[in-house]
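EI: anyone free to look at a 550-residue chain?
SC: sure, send it
EI:
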Amino acid sequence: MHEIEISNLSFTYESRSSPALDKVNLTVEPREFVLLAGASGSGKSTLIKCINGLIPHRYVGEYAGQASIRGQAVPDSRFLQLSLTVGTVLQEADKQLVSSIVEDDVAFGPGNLALPREEIERRVKSSLEAMDILRLRQRSIFAISGGQKQRLAIADVLAMEPDILLFDEPLANLDSNGVHLMQAIFRTLHETGKTIVVSEHRTEEVLRSKPTRVVVIDNGKLLADSEDPKVLVKFKDILKVPAEYALEGVTPPNEVSPDYTRLDMSTTPAQELVKVDDLAFEYSGGVKALSGISFTIHEGERVALLGNNGAGKSTLALSLIGLLKPTAGHVLIEGKNTRKLNTSEIAKTLCLVFQSPFSMLFARTVRDELSFGPKNLEYSTQVIDSIVPETAKRCSISHLLDGSPFASSFGEKKRICVGAVLTIQPKCIILDEPTAGQDYRSYSNFMNFICSLEEHVKSFIVITHDPDLAIEYTDRAIVLNDGRIIADGPTRKVLADQSILKEGAIRETSQIELSLRATGGKEVLRLADLARRQASFASSYISRDKLPTQ
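SC: here you go
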C-alpha cells in the first residue's frame, strides 16, 4: 500500500479561473524522503494541502481526482483522524501558533490528544530541545524573532509524532544553526522510518540531507520525478540550486562582473541618510536586544545585515524607522534625531518591508495596499495613478491588483508588501528577509528590480539569512551577534572570513565554498565571476557525493 497516492488530481480555488493543480499523479512510499521543488505559485503548497486534508475540508474550490493516505481517500477521512497521521509545518509560521507562551504552544497538540501529563511534558521538552529553543519555553511568542517562531512551529509538529511529515518552506526564516538543525532532523526522521515531503525553494540545503527523490512542479503540473538530484540542473533558471549545478553548461563571461558599488566613498562625498551612534535597546522585562551599535549609511550603498536568529536584526530595523525608540544612543535620519520625528516623516527617507506579510497587509484589494502610503503622504491622484500600476508591474503583481491580498500565495504577499513601500518612493528601504518563500526566478527579478531603482531609492539595507543574496547584490555587509556588530566591511571580504561565518551563524553555501577554493580563501565571488573560473575547478566538483552533509 502506498503511503501517499495522488491520482489525476486537479484543484481550482474558488474565484480563480485557472487550476492550481492540473491532473497530478504522484505516489510516495513508506520511509521515503521527497524534495518537492517549484517556483512560487507553482502548486507546491496546494499539493501539500491536498495531502493533509486542508483541501477539500477547509478550502473551497473545484476538486477532481483523488488523494489518498494509506489507501483512505482524503475527502472521505475525518480531518482530526488525518491530523494524527499527517503533520504539517505551514509556510507561514504565524498561522500555526495558537498560544501566547512558547511551551504552551507546543503542548497544545498533545494536550488535545488527552495524553497523560508526563507524556505531554516529555514531548514538549523533547521538541523544544530538538529545535534548540528550550531556553525560550517561558517566553511570549510576541517577543521572539521570526526565525524563532519558525523553529517553534516545527517543534509544534514534532510534538505530535506523526508518521508522515509535510514541511512547506521550513527553512525560509532560519539561520545557519537552524538550517543545520533541520538537516539533522530530516536525516533522523528518515532514519527512524518516517515519511517526509519537503516543499522548499532552498534546494541546496535539503539536498545535503540526502532526499531519496526530487519532484519538480510548475503551473500545477509535475515536470520531473527522479532519484538523481542533478535533474534540478534543468530548472536552474527558476529554482535556487547549488552553485555547482548553476554553473553547469554556463559560458564564462570574458570579464569580471562589475561591482555593484556605485560610489567610491573615499573620494566622493555622499549624502548621509542614516547615522546610528552607540545605540542600545532593551525590551520590557530586561531583555537586552541591542548594545553599542554604531554605523552610517550613505547614498549609493547597498548593505546586507546578517546574523543568527535573535541577533537583533529586526529590532535594529524597527529602531531605524522610529517604531522603537532607543534605550540609549541615537538614530539620525538625514541628520534629524528619530526621537523628534514621527514615522510619516521618517518614511519619506527610510521605509521597512516587514518580515511577515501579515504585519503589513490589511486592505480590501492589492491596489488599495499600494495606494495607502502615498495617499496618506498626500501624493497627488495623478502621481498615485502612475506609480501604482508601474510598481505592480515591476513587482510582478499586476494580475493581482483588483483581488484580495489575502488570496495570494506567500511569495506574492511578499511582493505586495514591497510594492506598498516602493509607492512611497523613499530614498532608502530596509527589506527584512525579502526573498524568504520566493523562488529563484522571482528572487532574481525582484532583486534586480530593487537595484534598478537607484534614481528614486538611493540605498537599501537587506536583512537576510541568505549569504548568496548578499554576495550577488550588496557591496557592504554588517554582521550582528547577540545584539552587537561583529563585522562591518566589504561583502566579499566579510563573507570569506570563516570566523565571522561561524560566530554570525552564516551558512557556508556551495557558492562560498567554490569562491574560497577559486581565490585561495581571499574573497567570495558572484556567480558570473565563478563561471569565469569554472573551467579549472568546477568540473571536478560537480557530483552528488561532493555536496557536504553539514
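EI: The mean pLDDT is 88.
SC: 👍
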